[in-house]
Every structure is written in structure tokens, then in C-alpha cells.
Amino acid sequence: MNKITPHLIRDLNATLPEGTECYLCSAVRQALSKYRKGREPAAYLNKEQAVPMLATRLGRGLKRFFVRDVQAALDSMDNQKNRLSWPF
Description:
The chain is mostly helical and 88 residues long. It is built from four helices and no strands.
């Protein structure tokens, strides 16, 4: 597991869509809950809704804090975007 710095927690808090906290690793989820002073979202999104939102809104370098299957889904979405981009 990578180290969770206060800077990364602030960035995660700012860019993480509401309702996707359940897909974070347990240590990161606890640190984010402590940063938010125990506030939790009213409802969680299912994975089919959460992955596209995470792919568009998530801050750079924060994919590593999610569970493995969500990381794999985000990587596959990145690969699809890269295939469609025009070569420079």
C-alpha cells in the first residue's frame, strides 16, 4: 500500500464523486472518514455508475487507492480513451 499523505487525502476529498467511497481500500476509507469528521454519503453508487464517474473526475495518481477490480476497470477505460485519441 502506498503512503497516504494529508495532501493526497485533500485531493481525494476534492475530486472523489460522492457515493464512491465504498470502493476505496479500507485504510484510505478510514483516513478519508477521519478527514471528513465522520461524514458519510447518504447512498452509495453501484460499480457500473461509479467507474465512469471516477474515470472523468478523479484526480491524477489516485487510482492506486481503490480496490483491485475498480483499478482494473479504470485502467481499461483509460486504454479505450487512448485508442481513440488522435496520434500527435
